[in-house]
Write a structure and sequence with these properties.
The chain is mainly alpha-helical.
């Protein structure tokens, strides 16, 4: 007779919740649900019920469980969950998953390619890839991922689960997790998610007496009325409403004959003094005694290995041959004590975690320790063949057997390997465990590794605190070199987090330990970190011209400071070159790549050729030493430089392909930002929008803040270059909320975005103000952005306004930023304006024609340049202003940028030539306005009213007189039937919203 219930008792609300959640997932309304409760309370029963219902709906089910052995295995529940699905059905082949296969290969063995090193994806990148996979699996009927015992899960899995919780709402996915109410990262995550209302959490309470009676009847396959009263009282009183304990205690009653079937009735034969002080422990001890000694020994040994155990490891410990071992395991399976693990053919699992705990607890403490020692010694004999998981198990057995120091050494060794593999969260757990067990002589080294692990896990404050607690070591000793390396690695993490003071402090500590003449390889690592630190905001202040006042080339009091800072930058450059040479000589490829990257950044102020040379060397080192991360980084930077110099995105596309082939989502998003901005500048607006939509949401989810801000800025710049003020304002709000106005992107926001928006509204004064603000910001925050207008648009506008002359232009032409194809257009036009002003009219006209022809890749900038140059040429009587204005007017009219088109028409009238009216434009007018008789010219005024401008502003932007605006306003009021200007403005805003 079995002692398990075939039905779920007392969980009506929870099963209804699961039914509703499955319904939502099938309708692409994802949910995250968590059941929290003590061991045996029924969490797994509900998970099984959810799986059963999902299968009935033809929904893919992925089921994984964290290990309760105390072993730290990154992503263990996720690997098991995906294996449970793909072992039978095979992995999906959808093309949309192609960019994510390399990242998912860490979880899906079928997608691993050879043994070559891959891109060490971040946890967030892996989480995004998993989310995309679940979305693909659920696109027809929805998808369910079941993760059990999250309280035992590793740090990386918890981070992935948090990401899925935060982003599952609009996907066809149900995430169901279970955990015990034990303090830890899993419970903190679930409570936080519940407070943020992004997850549903249910506490599973004990069954009531009536529910225990119902469950007992189900186990006995009878009615509640037929359950003996004595049996019910015993189970209700001793199981505490825990379903698992009800079944275990009932099985004990059946096995011991205290509950027997007599005819068609159940009869109890319980002695009143048969107390079970520890409940389940006594029950399992009695059940164990009924097995033959060899089977009992195998079960005790297996329980010592944990609630889940490997057959290979168990055979190593017991020394039994295959036939004997599997015979004993079959006996335990038939008794419903263990079961094969469906996710791993080499593994068995106890039917419940409490079963293993109870079996071990049935032994005397000395016997438990002796068994653990025997198991540990057996594993030590084959330690060279063991993986990290088995080595952790050996350490746990050593600890249980009393060898704390040996356990510490094993935990530390595995933790350091995990740190080297990028699993810093799991490394923290293992190294912290090792630190608590280590011998006094080992604590220092373990603490140093733990501090680095915390730093690389993003827990810089904890890392700094641990480093500060370390005992002093003699300077210039071997211990000092190890400590110095610790400080350097923490300093690098601080630089990446832009924690400048902390980074500087760690560098000082390292130099103090290493002395005035550290070993060359240590000096190289220090120089690289110091160089990158010097590039952070606030660390260097190269002198820049002030807007509207002192200009480049003039003498000013800051020249001495600029000279000093130039010398400092040269010193950093020299140190970086030495570091690169030493790193390559001493076979330190990562340091070499860091050094060449630093040199490329520093060389940008001398020109792109030198910078590209450094990046090519960086690429060569990365390829030679199979460093995929640094290879992608070099390709991205080379692509960015090529794009800026020529406007050609081909090399950026190559970099994106390389990043995507590795599953490197963060670099891919970074490249997408550059490609989107390139498309904006090339006037490929639909393509730009497609790229932005492809990556902007994903970059926010992956917390790739740099790429996310750049994509948002590209979106704002797209709106600005299309003359869409409302879209621009909304995009800039999103940019500001993402912290864009506190980032290094401010010059681009002002010079490439806002200034162009002002020019397309014919507000040249505002454009100059934005460009001056950009220059002022750069004077306080050194950067290498050359598209901020400082090296192109600003000199042109100042030249046209008569504010700059030949000397100022010559200074700008001598800067690296003048090499950019985008900037060259404006600088050549500025030169043409000066030559026309100087009387060299033929050459000025040729320069305009040449500049415009060479800028064919940038249609908006090209025609805006024509419009600006034509104004100067018309006023100063040189060149071909009429032809230029006609070309510009045609472009801007077709683009729907009416203020500039109107200004071009006004210029043509000023030149005394006839201006043909565009009879088209009716298609742009909404039907309800067109049927009311609104003309294209009136519609141009109507569109601007959404921003509630005055008549003077409208007149200026459309290059018409205020009186003409008044006439159009009167006509619009009459044709639309609006009572006053405010109502007309509101109507305009409504139409704009409908158009959007």
């Amino acid at each position: 007779m079995r002692a398990t219930s075939s039905v779920i008792v007392g969980r009506v609300a929870e099963t209804c919740l699961l039914g509703n959640a499955l319904d939502d997932a099938s309708r692409r309304s994802g949910r995250a649900v968590f059941f929290v409760g003590d061991a045996g309370i029924g969490k797994s029963r509900l998970v099984g019920e959810c799986a059963y219902r999902a299968y009935a709906r033809d929904m893919p089910v992925l089921r994984g469980r964290a290990t309760s052995t105390g072993l730290v295995v990154p992503f263990r529940p996720l690997i098991e969950a995906l294996s449970s699905r793909f072992r039978a059905a095979g992995p999906p082949t959808d093309p949309e998953l192609d960019p994510y296969r390399p990242a998912l290969a860490r979880l899906v063995p079928e997608w691993r390619q050879g043994s070559s090193p891959g891109y060490p994806e971040t946890v967030v990148e892996l989480a995004e890839a998993l989310l995309r996979l679940l979305s693909v699996l659920g696109k027809e009927h929805g998808c369910v991922i079941l993760l059990e015992d999250l309280h035992d899960s590793d740090t990386e899995t918890i981070a992935v689960v948090e990401y899925v919780i935060d982003n599952v709402a609009e996907l066809p996915v149900l995430l169901l997790g279970t955990l015990r109410p034990e303090p830890g990262a899993a419970l903190d995550l679930v409570r936080s998610a519940e407070q943020r209302q992004v997850a549903t959490v249910r506490e599973l309470t004990p069954l009531g007496e009536a529910e225990v009676l119902e469950m007992t009847a189900s186990c006995l396959e009878t009615t509640p009325e037929e359950v003996p009263q004595a049996t019910h009282e015993r189970l209700a009183g001793r199981a505490g409403g825990n379903p698992y304990l009800v079944e275990v205690l009932l099985a004990d009653l059946l096995d011991s004959g205290q509950l027997r079937r007599s005819g068609d009735r159940w009869q109890a034969h319980c002695s009143p003094d048969a107390a079970v002080p520890t409940g389940v422990v006594r029950s399992w001890a009695r059940r164990l005694d009924r097995f033959d000694a060899p089977v009992r020994e195998v079960l005790l040994c297996a329980a010592t290995l944990g609630s889940q155990f490997s057959v290979t490891v168990l055979q190593t410990v017991t020394g039994l041959d295959d036939r004997t071992l599997f015979s004993h395991l079959r006996s335990a399976v038939e008794a419903s004590i263990i079961a094969p693990d469906g996710a791993d053919p080499d593994r068995y699992t106890f039917r419940h975690a409490l079963t293993a705990e109870a079996l071990v607890a049935s032994l005397a403490p000395a016997e438990r320790a002796a068994m653990a020692r025997r198991a540990a010694h057996s594993l030590e004999a084959v330690a060279q063949q063991l993986g990290d998981e088995q080595l952790q198990l050996m350490a746990s057995l050593q600890m249980a057997g009393g060898d704390r120091h040996g356990a510490a050494r094993q935990f530390a060794a595995v933790g350091r390997r995990m740190l080297a593999a990028g699993a810093s969260g799991s490394a923290v757990i293992l190294l912290d465990r090792a630190r608590s067990l280590a011998h006094t002589s080992d604590v220092r080294a373990v603490t140093e590794s733990l501090a680095v692990a915390h730093a690389e896990a993003g827990e810089l404050d904890t890392a700094l605190a641990l480093a500060g607690e370390l005992p002093p070591v003699p300077a210039r000793s071997e211990a000092a070199e190890q400590r110095g390396e610790t400080h350097v690695r923490i300093a690098w993490a601080a630089v990446m987090a832009e924690r400048t003071e902390e980074a500087a402090g760690q560098i000082r500590a390292a130099r103090s330990l290493l002395g005035a003449t550290p070993p060359p390889e240590k000096e190289a690592a220090l120089d690289v970190v110091e160089g990158h630190l010097a590039l952070l905001p606030g660390q260097s202040r190269p002198e820049q011209p002030q807007p509207g006042g002192t200009h480049l080339g003039q003498s000013h009091p800051g020249q001495e400071r600029a000279a000093r800072e130039g010398e400092a930058r040269q010193a950093v450059r020299d140190a970086a070159r030495r570091a690169a040479a030493v790193a390559e000589e001493r076979n330190l490829p990562v340091v070499a790549c860091q050094a060449w990257q630093l040199l490329a950044l520093l060389s940008r102020e001398h020109g792109f050729d030198e910078a590209d040379s450094c990046l090519e060397r960086m690429l060569s080192v990365a390829e030679q030493h199979a460093l995929p991360v640094w290879r992608v980084e070099a390709l991205v930077r080379l692509g960015a430089n090529t794009f800026m110099r020529t406007g050609d995105p081909a090399r950026l596309e190559t970099a994106r392909t390389a990043a995507e082939s590795l599953g490197a989502l963060v670099p891919t998003q970074t490249v997408d930002g550059l490609l989107a901005m390139n498309a904006v500048m090339r006037g490929e607006w639909d393509g730009a929008q497609e790229i932005i939509e492809r990556s902007v949401a994903a970059s926010a989810r992956t917390r790739n803040l740099g790429a996310h801000r750049y994509l948002l800025l590209a979106s704002a710049t797209l709106a600005a270059h299309r003359g869409r003020r409302r879209d621009l304002d909304r995009a800039l709000v999103r940019f500001r909320r993402a912290g864009g106005e506190e980032s290094l992107l401010v010059p681009l926001q002002l010079g490439l975005c806002r200034a162009f928006a002002a020019l397309l509204e014919e507000d040249r004064g505002q454009a100059l103000a934005d460009l001056d603000a950009s220059l002022a910001w750069e004077s306080e925050h050194p950067s290498f952005f050359y598209l901020s207008g400082r090296h192109g648009l600003r000199p042109l506008l100042r030249t046209i306004e008569g504010l700059d002359g030949r000397a100022e232009l010559a200074t700008v032409l001598g800067s690296p930023g003048a090499d950019l194809a985008w900037n060259q257009l404006f600088l050549r036009l500025a030169d043409a304006v000066l030559r026309g002003r100087e009387g060299d009219t033929e050459r000025a006209a040729r320069m305009v024609r040449s500049a415009v022809a060479d800028a064919a890749a940038f249609p908006l900038a090209r025609h805006l340049g024509l419009r600006l140059a034509a104004g100067a040429a018309l006023a100063e009587k040189w060149g071909e202003p009429v032809a230029w204005l006609r070309a510009a007017e045609e472009y801007f009219y077709a683009a729907g940028i009416q203020p500039v088109a109107a200004a071009c028409r006004a210029g043509l009238r000023q030149a005394g030539v006839s201006v043909g009216q565009h009879r088209g434009g009716w298609d742009r007018i909404p039907a309800r306005l067109r049927t009311s008789g609104v003309t294209p010219r009136e519609y141009e005024v109507f569109v601007l009213l959404a921003e509630r401008p005055g008549n003077q502003q409208i007149a200026r932007r459309l290059s018409i007189s205020p009186r003409t605006v008044e006439k159009h306003m009167a006509s619009l009021l009459s044709k639309t039937g609006r009572s006053d200007r405010a109502a007309l403005c509101e109507f305009s805003a409504e139409c704009a919203a409908e158009h959007d």
